[in-house]
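Chapter summary example.
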Amino acid sequence: MHRDGRVLECAVLHISAGGARIRIHQRFDIDSTVVLMIDRLGTFPGEIRWQRGTYAGIRFLEDAQVVEKRLSAALPDPTDAVLALAEEL
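The structure predicted for these 89 residues follows.
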């Protein structure tokens, strides 16, 4: 993930067309702008919407239909998205 020109390591726990739930050790201000980078899926500009401990939620800034097409193209069965990402971790 990118934030303020820095690359931060995180684990993607769930991804959907609207956003992602991640695990990360850095603290964020709500509405902070970030770019989530995922191998095979690309980059996803977004905003931090919540954070509890080491868990945070990102709302993607791209239109949900555009993100859904990208997810579907990279993962033919979108229900496999979480499993495929977990295997990469």
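To summarize the output: The chain has a mean pLDDT of 85.
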